[in-house]
Every structure is written in C-alpha cells, then in structure tokens.
Design goal:
Helix content: 25-40%
Number of domains: 3
CATH superfamily of the largest domain: FAD/NAD(P)-binding domain
Mean pLDDT: 92
Low-confidence stretches: none
Oligomer: single chain
CATH architecture of the largest domain: 3-Layer(bba) Sandwich
Shape: globular
Number of helices: 14
Largest sheet: 7 strands, mixed
CATH class of the largest domain: Alpha Beta
Strand content: 15-25%
CATH topology of the largest domain: FAD/NAD(P)-binding domain
Structural class: alpha/beta
Radius of gyration: 22 Å
Amino acid sequence: MQTDFLVIGSGIAGLTYALKVARECPDKKVTIFTKTTSDETNTKYAQGGVAGVWDNENDSFEKHIEDTLIAGDGLCNEQAVEIVVKEGVDRIWELIDLGARFDKGQDGDYLLGREGGHSEYRILHYKDVTGREMERALLNAIALQPNIEVITHCFVVDIITQHHLGYLVTKSTPDIECFGVYVLNLHTKKIEKVLAGITLLATGGNGQVYRTTTNPVIATGDGVAMVYRAKGRIENMEFIQFHPTALYEHGVKGQAFLITEAVRGDGGILRNSDGEAFMERYDVRKDLAPRDIVARAIDSEMKRTGDEHVWLDCRHMSQERFLQHFPNIHQKCLSVGVDVSKNMIPVAPAAHYSCGGIKADEWARTSIRHLYAAGECASTGLHGANRLASNSLLEAMVFAHRAFIDSIKETPAHALSKWNKNCIPDWRAEGTTAPKEMILITQSLKELQLLMSDYVGIVRTNTRLARAMRRLDLLHEETENLYKTTEISPQLCQLRNMITVGYLIVKSAQFRHESRGLHFNTDYPGKSELVQNIVL
C-alpha cells in the first residue's frame, strides 16, 4: 500500500492534520490508521475544556503565557508557549466553524470556566464531554472528504527507515528518513507494508503504563516507543502528570473515571478524612493550584492518614448548575452510590498525561525526516515540567496545523524519490510460532504497571528508581525473547512498547538530579541551577 500522507491516530491532532492536508491537496491520498474505532482516543475522554483568550477586557495573551510558564516550572520553551497561546484561538474558531459546540449563557456569549493554575476565566467547554464534542465535529468533516481513508483496527508495529534497507542506523546517523510503517491488520491478521511520503504520529499518551490511569486502554505509548527504536529523539519523559481527582472505586484498577478540574473551578473543595479543607496548608491558591502541587498534597494526606483517597466536597454548590455543567459526572457518581448533593466524592490521583515525548520543533518536525509528531505523543516544549490544565487540546490543534503548513511544502513522494521502494522488504515472520500461553504477556503487564505505580509515581527516590530499572531490564529481556519467537499480536506489541516507555520514564528520572514540576525526588528535594531538558 502507498499513500501520500499517512496519519497514525485519530484523536484531535491526527484528525486536524488529515482534514487540512486533504482539503489543501485534493489530488493526494490521505490515510488514517487507528488501532480500534475512529473515536476511541484520549481526546474522547478530555472533560474539562480548551483554553483560549476570549475575554479581552480582563484576560490577555500575556496572562495565559505567564500562567503556562509558571505551571511549567522553568522548563517551557517560551517560543512554543507564545505560538500556542497566540495561534490557539484561531484554531478553536476553525473548529467552531466545523460545527463544534461549546456552552453558552442566556445572552449567547460563550461560558468561560477557570481551572487550576489559570489566573482568569478562559476555558471553553461543552458540558463535561468537551473532547468528545470536538472529536465529533472533526469526524463528521473527515467523513465528507473523499480523499481521506480511515482504516480502523490496524496496529502500527514499527517505523520504516534506512535500517530496513540494510543500513546501520544509530542516534548519531544524520538524516534518518521515514518511508512509512509496518502495520498489523487485525482483520486479516497479516503485517502489511505501508509506504508514505509524509507520516504524522498522533498516537496519544502512555497512561496504561501505570496501574490506575484516566486514559483508555489504547494509551500505551506506541508512537514514543517506535520513534525510540528508530533512533529518534525522545525528551523529558520523567514528567508524568497525575490528575489529582480521579473517582476512587475500591478494587477497581485500569481506567479510572476522571472528575474534571472544572469541578474545583466551580467551587469544589478537597477535604481529608477529618473533614479539613487541607489545600490551604500546601498552596495559597488552595484547590486551584497547579496539578503537580495538588496531586502531591493529596498523596501526602493519603500517606499521613493511611487512607486510599480524599474527598471532593460539592454539597455546597448549586446542584442545578452542577447537573447542567457535569451531567456525566453526576450520573457516574449516582451509579456508584454517591449523590453529590448529599455525599462527598471519593477521589485519588491517577496517571493522566505525559508532558514529554517525541522531541518536535516549532513545526512539529521530529529528528527523523518526513516524520512529524503532534498531540500528547510529542514534546513541543509547551508544557515544560508540568502541563497547565486545558492546554493539551489547544496544543494538539496548533501543532497539527503547523505540521500541515510545513509538510505540504514537500512533494509527498520525496521521501521515497531517491530510494528504490521495491528494496524495502516485506515483514518477515519466518521462524515464529503462535503464542502458547497468553499469561506470559498478561502477567508481565501486571508487573510493569505495579512497579511503575509503586516506584515511579508522584513521589520518587533513587532507591525506588534503581529497583524499577532492574525489574524493567528483566521484563525487557523476557519480552524481547517472546517477540522474536512468537507471532505478532497487539497485546505483545503494546507490552513491548509500554516496557520501552517505562524504561524511558525511569532513565529520564534518574538523569534529573532535582525536583521540578511533576518530577519529585526526595533525594533531590530542591531545584538545580542548571535548567535542562533530558533527551534520550
């Protein structure tokens, strides 16, 4: 198979890019691969909203930039921050023009929310399913575009580079090029070779590396792992954001239901088991402090009291307003026996967002030629050491747009022009057998998630990181042996990718000899004077 533009992932970054290049280049073929259904993405589960400067009387680009820089704790790329903040509003208007709906007041003006770390009300939202609404508008537009093909239930295994042509490729190899991907078609159970002029990775996050996460089961860090194997550059993987308030359900692991930060923006108060509103002891901004501070405060309270969760008190809030703004949260709470008008909501932190990822420049270009990255899988420099709430959807749209602008400058066939595409080999599976015991995969996954949660969570130590690395080395060795001798499956590929991502998180954390943003190491409680990115 050959395509002009190949998009891996169908979240907001992938869909935005695909739609723009398809409209600009109607004679070119655009192909989107997604490993489940087209709407099952991290975007779908984004509740809170998308940030932008709308109230020009009270708000300004400068304020939004400053809030982002403060949250990023000294590691933001200021150019990237300015780009996203200043270009983001235009990208939101484009989405509105596609039919995306956001909540309005009786006067017809958009209702603006405020979340942790924001100094002004600037969050556009659609009830508590903002991401799903934005994705709906994009998918509807994609369906009307004749030169876009969306292929579901296809798992991308690896990026094709000169390595597959027999050349030695290392981190220091100049001009590594991407020619496309190998993809496992889950319908045919065959691995197919897909050649592309331009490839965009929009593969989302890696929350499933942890035992409890707000991410869906597809968030396994595939793009990051593939680029690392292809000798591309990865940076700042130690900065894993734990959302402070995921719904706590006893005995439930895996994907946790998110209680959006907008609930605290509307007046929700965090309390410990003694009923104390404890956040005032940790930060002057109380419940609206940035996420890293709130998550560590909750973790501290849980360790102090021995409890497995704290409480989010919404009993004093207008229940009519709560039901209007957060209907899905209201319904979910009722389903587990929590009436928010009478009961406090049990909440605990859960892995939520990766601030690091595939190193990308201001045009979303990676260190591999003809390969772009946008969305959560990319590290653009916007988030620094900690993401400001509701900046993620904004970033995805802005850098997808910039990838579109840059990539159409090239002739999409350019990546293959100086190579004989017939020399790129088909996938070879000789010598492999069907897996005899799935327990070898499922048990390794459980071990990975347990060690990452226990040793590489909100608070870290050198000893915990060293233990995690030793266990990851063993898991890596066992999984690679399994990969070489058995037939490829999504479960095996995802495990392999998650072990790689776990290694990158731990290795980056070991290199950072300080506590900054989302990375808190009790052996290095202060900040280093040398502010640097960790690039692997």
